[in-house]
Amino acid sequence: MTSHREDRALPQLSLHTPIGAITLSEEDGAIVALDWGWGRDQTATPLLLTARDWLQRYFDGERLKMSLPVAPHGTPYRRRVWEELRRLAWGETLSYRELAIRSGGSARSIGGAMANNPIPILIPCHRVLSAVAGRVAIGGYSAGEGLETKRHLLALEGVAVPAPRISAQLAAATRMPT
């Protein structure tokens, strides 16, 4: 695991979850990163222990308000987007467009902010869905195992996730002969 600040080692704590091992990093009394994989160094600070406990309860299905201190590194615009995401409650979703309106940007810039979210789950970018021509789709997800991870997190929160759509041509090409 590498930290966002290379000049000094940040306290890190890892845990096993249903979506794989994840590692939390702390800087100056706030969570600054959540990365997939097991961190090399393990430091059990009070904040990291609290964050680990919160995540374990989250994965056990408890509806929890996220009140842990976070300090994501990013541009002022991205931090504004991430702060707007933190306002979403358990199981609440919105579209890239809706988030863009709330944050003062475009759907494309929202996608960029989501792809660079350094603290997924705690800053719940998995709750942002695509809406095209009135239809809701899962959109993208760059953390963990991608869309599989996003589907798992949404299902955990009780969000009905649209099934992936495939074209009739692709469906016919993949059908087994009888």
How does this model look, in words?
By secondary structure, the protein is an alpha+beta fold. It has a domain at 76-156: Winged helix-like DNA-binding domain superfamily/Winged helix DNA-binding domain (Arc Repressor Mutant, subunit A). Helices cover 33% and strands 17% of the residues. The protein has 6 helices and 6 strands. The protein has helices at residues 46-59, 76-86, 96-103, 107-115, 147-156, 168-174, and strands at residues 12-17, 20-27, 30-36, 94-95, 128-132, 135-137. A 3-stranded antiparallel beta sheet has the order 1-2-3, covered by helices on one side. Helix 2 crosses helix 3 (96-103) and helix 3 packs across helix 4 (107-115). The protein is globular and about 45 Å long. The mean pLDDT is 84.
Comma- or semicolon-separated keywords:
178 residues; alpha+beta; Arc Repressor Mutant, subunit A; 3-stranded mixed beta sheet
Q: What is the CATH class name of one domain?
A: Mainly Alpha
> In this structure, how is the largest beta sheet organized?
3 strands, antiparallel
Which stretches of 5+ consecutive residues score pLDDT under 50?
none
Strand percentage: 15-25%
Mean pLDDT: 84
Task: Please give the CATH architecture of one domain.
Answer: Orthogonal Bundle
Query: What sort of overall outline do the alpha carbons produce when their principal axes are compared?
Result: globular
Number of helices: 6
Total beta-strand segments: 6
**H and E order:** EEEHHEHHEEHH
CATH superfamily of one domain: Winged helix-like DNA-binding domain superfamily/Winged helix DNA-binding domain
Kindly provide the radius of gyration, computed on alpha-carbon positions and rounded to a whole number of angstroms. 18 Å
The chain-level structural class is alpha+beta
User: Which sequence of strands runs across the widest sheet?
Assistant: 1-2-3
